[in-house]
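Re-run requested by the PI after the first attempt was lost when the workstation crashed. Everything re-entered from the original request form. Ligand of interest: zinc ion.
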Amino acid sequence: MIPTCIECSEPLRGRADKKFCDDVCRTAYHNRLNKNSNRLVRIINRRLQQNRRILDMLWNAHPLRRVPAEVLRQNGYDFRYSTHIRNSEPGSQYIFCYDLGLKVTEDGQEFQLLKEAPAPPSGVK
Ligand SMILES: [Zn+2]
């Protein structure tokens, strides 16, 4: 079987491990890959920022920082997207969107909100 270019499918000549005709095909191929992954990153970033806006709005609207799960859903909070997790008491975790986190309450009906203070810059003691 004659090896062909990954980008344009033309038969390849030269070294056996060649994947592309030339730099034009190589660049076109990698640009397309990057475009797709950049698009996915943009979509995820938008969802995360939307979740953060919702948490911020609820943080300001609920002085006790307890919010029914239904209210989160009604406001469009997407539970699939978060930035990090922190343990609180044993067996319980806050799920964060940037600086704002939520944790399901003991009765499972509400979420407790938590705002994280920014971490000091790395290298600072
Ligand atoms: Zn090619």
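Saved to the shared folder this time. Residues 5, 7-8, 10, 20-21, 25 surround zinc ion (CB under 6 Å).
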